Amino acid sequence: MKKIITIAVIVALVLIGVICIVQVNRNQKGSVSNTTSITKEKTPTLVRVNEVTRSVFYSPQYVAIALGFFEENGIEVELTNGGGADNVMTAVLSGQSDIGFCGPEASIYVYNEGKTDYPEVFAQLTKRDGAFLVSRVATDNFSWDDLKGKVVIPGRKGGVPYMTLEYVLKQKGLDPSKDLTLDDSISFDLMAGSFAGGNADYVTLFEPTASLTEKSGIGYIVASVGAEAGEIPYTAYFALKSYIENNEDLIQNFTNAIYKGQKWAKDHTAKEIAEKIVEFFPDTDVETLATSIQKYKDIDAWSQTPVMSEEAFEKLQDVIEEAGELEKRADYTKVVNNKYAKEAIK
Question: From the CA atom positions of the chain, what is the Rg in Å?
Answer without folding.
Answer: 27
